[in-house]
Write a structure and sequence with these properties.
Blueprint lengths: L5 H10 L23 H17 L2 H13 L5 H16 L4 H16 L7 H10 L5 H11 L8 H11 L6 H12 L4 H13 L5 H15 L15 E7 L6 H11 L7 E6 L4 E7 L2 H13 L6 E3 L4 E2 L2 H11 L17 H10 L2 H10 L3 H5 L1 H12 L4 H17 L6 H10 L5 H10 L9 H13 L7 H10 L4 H12 L4 H15 L15 E7 L7 H9 L10 E6 L2 E8 L2 H12 L4 E3 L4 E2 L2 H13 L5 E2 L9 H15 L3 H4 L3 H8 L9 H13 L7 E4 L18 E5 L5 E6 L4 H5 L6 E5 L2 E2 H15 L5 H11 L9 E7 L5 E7 L23 E6 L3 E6 L6 H12 L4 E5 L34 E5 L6 H11 L4 E4 L7 E7 L5 E9 L17 E2 L4 H5 L4 H11 L2
Parallel strand pairs: 20-21, 21-22, 22-23, 23-26
Antiparallel strand pairs: 1-3, 1-4, 1-5, 2-3, 6-8, 6-9, 6-10, 7-8, 7-11, 12-25, 13-14, 15-16, 15-17, 17-18, 19-20, 24-25
Helix pairs in contact: 2-3, 2-4, 3-5, 4-6, 5-6, 5-7, 6-7, 8-9, 8-10, 9-11, 10-11, 15-16, 15-18, 16-19, 18-19, 19-20, 19-21, 22-23, 22-25, 23-25, 24-25, 29-32, 34-35
Length: about 1000
């Protein structure tokens, strides 16, 4: 979701809470702050800690110091004693950790908390800010001096001196200093920056940093800024407010406002929703000119600029320069080159058919949209009338992103177009409008509000509350009376589901119940979300204890707290909105809490999502919310479908309509009579992701697959697909019925039990992909070639017709006695190479080295070192990743042997010559990720067939009834490329398959093609 920070993410998470909750009583009045502390006990504790600090050694001082920070000030005599005896000793302790702890406590206790600050504390922090140890300086500056509200000239001078001391201190010191100086008058900061600007000739680096500090603190330029015009360079970051549909669109804007003299070096990367530009700007004047140029352009307002000045360190310059040489990124599964003239794209959008319009919307760079708004809208209007809903959906998104979202007021034609598309019969078009356009309109007219309400109450997207939530957020500024008038007809209507959605929408938008809410009694249960501001609470128990200061268990019995990423968050369930508002108001006055601004209505979708959130770190959850697990198969399968729809990243890449999958499979849950039948239904759903990494695992129930008779027995041979697209024998097991019967390598299977080989393979593939996911059809065919001759019963006779390499026919009747087993990954055995080994190497004829990488393991760099060392002097190198089953690796270290430009680890063996990389359909996952570096850098020529196209980061989901777990990909992996590897894989530069005659003669066609190519160089 665009623009929402972490708090908003947590709000969505804890919006999804149990529907079955106990009623809670109206809260009694409570004070607006936590219960008062025991002053006598605090004073005694301060005195006790003072004595302990005087007597303690370094380690114990580190332990005792932090507690004093949170205790109130003691008596004047006691504080005098601290400054006379304790703090000087801690500040002079030989252990820098003690000095850092003392600086933190002194800063927090006497500088940040007091105005004016205690002058004794200021003096100590000034001294510690000049400490030789970096952690001590950091504590004194960040926890103390920077947080003084009214800073003296001495403090301002010290902060600026520290800020200009080291260009590498940006994140840890300079940023907090700049924030602290933003509280000081600009003329005061200017006085202390001036000495550094005046000495720009003698110390240009410090002058540049001083200029940077002033600009970042005051958001203006210092007097006489032109003196540093020639200093630099800087890093500037921009992104596009209205997210570009593709890289060429973004580049059209970049090239328009970023002429080479102002920023000769820049990089572009594609975020999830926007394009980001990072530019090296040579000096202060170029930066100033660039900002002025941007502000003067019509489309400049579409660029969001990071106004913070960042001085480019040598490391930054090196990185941006290196990144600028990389290929431009793309967000989609296919590259988006500009393959047609822009006039042709305009014609396609205006008068073309659906395919042409779809291509134009995806691939054109829209210069008309950038410079001629009306002409661009004309094209989108034409596309919005297309018969293909996919074209209308793309038009709806572009109209919303470019002309509604970030425009106030929105362009009237774009808004009218969005309202028209909001009535589209296709739900995905309506959802696109309701997400990207309508909720972004400020002060929306009734027509916009009506369209939002209709979308949110009639659409049921599988993202839990995605559309509902964004609509409620967009309606929050509508007067409750106006909103209730518009929603009442739906709340009183005959459609029960729409009425429930309308009730929830009103409550979550307005924060109150509508008149006569009795119809929705079961929904009158509300969640108040709360969290820790600035990580004030480290554990769920700390958050719960603090919350209970305001809401004792007898008044709010149902509360849940949980770890959430690196934060902790919680939710309380109440049945009285007035009580919830009262609690919300009081929590907001406590600076320790971050609180949701609207109640959340409980519904079944939120129940499912809350279980998911709790399941992320179940060991850390503390919950008294009554949430019985759903016992039925229906609920568990529905929630599995919703979760997969929520997290799986590749639906668009694969063209999967997940709603349609749900419509097909969800009704079948009511027909399941046993756990095994339900398990198979779950497997079918997971398989519909068409993903080789997605799989069903046992939970409280065993896997259901033994209940199906899968074919698993064969006579003792395996096939691959040859260059004539036939299944050809490449492996015969020794001592098997196949060997005894005369089956030879190189024979092509013509038929199996009277069925043509192609039909037999198709039948095997159909059964497998019903229950197991395959990321690509080619990977499925690879497996089918090995398994399509298998039978369900051991010993069953299989009738085979085959043709040898010379075209002679053969017939066999062989018993299928061998069970599933490891089959060689290499098409032809290579003497001295273990087919099952992780990394194997051998020197071939003609000084060609050969490295077989069967798996990608963490020790891959060490194994590659050993392989290259064993090969010695070689002119050419073949790397074989055929059959690679993946694993995990250090991306840089694992390719360093072959990267001549990588200066790290110079002692490791390096190979700088030509490389041939052999690939096939069984190279998968991390194997593809590792091989992608050779593709991205063009370091090798690829021979063979396209890889599996299965590469992603994964998570594990437990079904709500606990019966099964599901491994599900959650992020498409790109490896070293600028596109996902999923589905598409890595294509060979030289497509080549094994030849039957070569196999019969023991020759590896692919390896021989690579060798011949290398020898010709």
């Amino acid at each position: 979701m665009h623009g929402f920070r972490f708090a908003r993410v947590l709000l969505v998470a804890f919006a999804c809470v149990a529907a079955t909750i106990l009623p809670s009583s109206r809260l009694h009045a409570h004070p607006t702050r936590p219960a008062p502390r025991d002053a006598a006990a605090d004073a005694a504790r301060v005195e006790e800690l003072t004595t302990a600090l005087l007597e303690a050694d370094g380690a114990n001082r580190i332990k005792e110091c932090p507690e004093l920070r949170d205790l109130p000030l003691g008596s004047a005599a006691l504080e005098d004693r601290l400054f006379r005896e304790v703090w000087p000793k801690c500040a002079a302790d030989g252990d820098p950790q003690v000095r850092a702890a003392a600086a933190s406590v002194i800063g927090g206790r006497y500088l940040a908390a007091l105005d004016p600050p205690d002058p004794r504390a200021v003096a100590l922090c000034l001294k510690l800010a000049a400490d030789p140890e970096r952690p001590v300086r950091k504590s004194a500056v960040v926890e103390g001096l920077a947080r003084i509200t009214n800073k003296s000239d001495e403090v301002v001078a010290a902060l600026i001196a520290r800020a200009v001391a080291d260009p590498r201190d940006e994140d840890e010191l300079r940023n907090p200093i700049q924030w602290g100086l933003s509280l000081s008058p600009a003329d005061q900061v200017a006085r202390h920056v001036e000495p550094y600007l005046a000495k720009r000739q003698e110390a240009p680096e410090r002058a540049l940093l001083a200029y940077t500090v002033y600009v970042n603190a005051t958001l203006t330029e210092p007097p006489g800024a032109e003196r540093v015009d020639g200093l630099g360079p800087f890093v500037m970051e921009f992104d596009l407010r209205a997210p570009a549909p593709d890289v060429p669109t973004f580049m059209a804007i970049v090239r328009h406002f970023l002429p080479e003299p102002l920023a000769p070096t820049f990089t572009v990367r594609a975020g999830r929703h926007a394009m980001r530009l990072t530019a090296l700007v040579p000096n202060v004047k170029a930066r100033r000119d660039l900002l002025e140029r941007l502000q003067g352009l019509e489309w400049g307002k579409e660029m969001r600029v990071d106004n913070r000045i960042r001085v480019a360190t040598p490391e930054m310059v090196e990185k941006v320069t290196a990144d600028s040489k990389k290929p431009l990124p793309t967000e989609g599964p296919e590259p988006v080159p500009q393959t047609r003239p822009i006039d042709e794209y305009a014609r396609m959008m205006a008068t073309g058919d659906s395919d042409e319009r779809g291509e134009a919307l995806e691939k054109s760079n829209f210069p008309d949209l950038l410079t001629k708004q009306e002409a661009g809208l004309d094209l989108l209007v034409a596309c919005a009338m297309d018969a293909n809903p996919g074209v209308r959906e793309k038009a709806a998104r572009l109209a919303g992103e470019w002309w509604v979202w970030y425009r106030d007021p929105p362009h009237p034609r774009a808004l009218a177009l969005s309202l028209k598309l909001a009535k589209d019969p296709e739900p995905k078009v309506v959802g696109t409008v309701a997400y990207f356009a309508l909720p972004r309109v400020k002060n929306p007219p009734d027509a916009v509000v009506d369209a939002m309400i209709t979308a949110a109450t009639t659409q049921t997207p599988w993202e839990p509350n995605g559309l509902h939530f964004i609509t409620a957020y967009g309606l929050r500024n509508i007067a409750p009376e106006r909103l209730e008038t518009l929603l009442t007809p739906i709340m009183r209507g005959a459609d029960e589901q729409q009425a429930r959605h309308a009730f929830a929408l009103f409550v979550e938008s307005s924060g109150r119940e509508p008149a006569n809410p009795e119809r929705f009694q079961r929904l009158r249960r509300y969640m108040l979300w709360f969290g820790a501001r600035d990580r004030k609470f480290k554990t769920p128990q700390e958050l719960l204890d603090a919350f209970r200061e305001y809401a004792p268990a007898e008044q709010v019995p149902e509360v849940a707290v949980t770890p959430y990423g690196e934060e902790v968050a919680g939710g309380a369930v109440l049945t009285d909105l007035a009580a919830l508002k009262d609690l919300n108001d009081r929590l907001r006055q406590d600076p320790r809490f971050s609180v949701g601004d609207r109640p959340q209505v409980m519904n079944p979708e939120r129940v499912a999502y809350l279980r998911y959130v709790f399941g992320l770190k179940p060991e850390g959850v503390i919950s008294t919310i009554d949430m019985p697990k759903p016992g039925g198969y229906d609920d568990a399968l529905r929630e599995l479908h919703a979760h997969l729809g929520r997290v799986y990243p590749a639906f668009k890449i694969k063209g999967i309509d997940w709603d349609k999958v749900g419509g097909e499979l969800l009704p079948l849950a009511s027909e399941a009579k046993t756990d095994a039948e339900f398990g198979l239904l779950c497997a079918r759903m997971v398989a519909r992701l068409e993903d080789s990494h997605a799989q069903l695992l046992p939970g409280s129930a065993p896997l259901p697959f033994p209940t199906i008779e899968f074919p698993r027995y064969d006579p003792g041979f395996a096939c691959l697909i040859d260059d004539r697209d036939r299944p050809v024998v490449y492996h015969v097991d020794k001592g098997s019925p196949a060997e005894a019967g005369g089956v030879k390598v190189g024979m092509a299977v013509v038929s199996v039990n009277g069925k043509p080989a192609a039909e037999a393979m198709a039948a095997w593939m159909g059964q497998m992909k019903t229950y197991f996911g395959y990321s690509s059809e080619r990977y499925l065919r690879y497996d089918a070639a090995k398994g399509f001759c298998r039978q369900t019963k051991q010993g069953e006779v299989v009738k085979l017709e085959m043709e040898d390499a010379e075209g002679e026919a053969h017939a066999f009747e062989l018993p299928a006695t061998l069970n599933t087993r490891y089959l060689p990954r290499l098409p032809v055995p290579i003497e001295g190479i273990d087919d099952f080994g992780n990394v194997e190497s051998k020197k071939l004829a003609d000084d060609i080295g050969y490295i077989y990488v069967r798996r990608i393991q963490p020790d891959l760099p060490q194994r590659l070192d050993a392989a290259l060392a064993a090969l010695g002097d070689i002119k050419w190198l073949v790397i074989d990743v055929r059959g690679n089953s993946g694993g995990g690796f250090d991306a840089r270290a694992a390719v360093r042997n072959f990267n001549p430009d990588d200066p790290e680890e110079p002692s490791r063996p390096r190979y700088k010559g030509p490389i041939a990389l052999l690939v096939d359909e069984r190279c998968i996952s991390a194997g593809e990720g590792w091989a992608s570096w050779f593709v991205a850098t063009k370091r090798a020529t690829l021979f063979g067939t396209t890889t599996a196209g299965a590469s992603a980061r994964k998570d594990t989901y437990t079904l709500t009834n606990g019966m099964y777990k599901v491994v599900v990909p959650v992020k498409a992996y790109t490896g070293s490329l600028d596109r996902p590897i999923e589905r598409r894989g890595l294509e060979p530069d030289v497509p080549v398959r094994c030849n039957a005659k070569d196999l019969a003669q023991g020759k590896d066609t692919v390896l021989e093609a690579a060798r011949a190519s290398l020898l010709m160089r």
